[in-house]
Sequence to fold (145 residues):
Amino acid sequence: MTSTYPELAGGPRNALLLAARLLLAFIFVHEGVFLILNFDSAASATSKLGVPNVVFVATIVLQLFAGMAIALGIFTRLGAIALAIFCFLTAFMFHTHFGVRDELLHFEKDLAIAGGLLVLALHGVGDWSVEAKLPRYLRARLGRS
Fold:
C-alpha cells in the first residue's frame, strides 16, 4: 500500500525528529534533576508509596541517562524503549484511581508519552544526532545502517 502523502525528507524530517527527541527528553531530564535537588523529600514521599530507595535512585539514573541519550541521539532506541516501559509501569502502578480527574489525566499522559517514545524507537533518531556522526561500523552496532 502506498501513501498518498509525500514523505518528509532531508532537513524538515531531521528538524522534526530533533524537536520530537528534545520534547520527549525534556520531561525526564527535568524530573531527574528535580529529584536530585529535592532528594530527601522526594525519597521520603516515594518510600511512603512503597518504592524502595534503590528503585528511587535507579529511577533518577534512568530518567537522566535515557533522557540525555534521547536528546543527544545516541542509544536512542534503547533509551526510548526503557522510558516507554517506565511510563507504562508508572501509569499502571501509581495512576489507577480513575475517579480522581488528575489521576486519570496522569495515567493518560504517561500512556501518551510511552506511545511517542515507541514511535521514536521504531522510526529512529534521524541525521541530526550523535549516532549519525559515528563511523559506519559503529552505527551498525547501534542498529543504524
User: Anything to note?
Assistant: Residues 10-37 form the longest helix (28 residues).
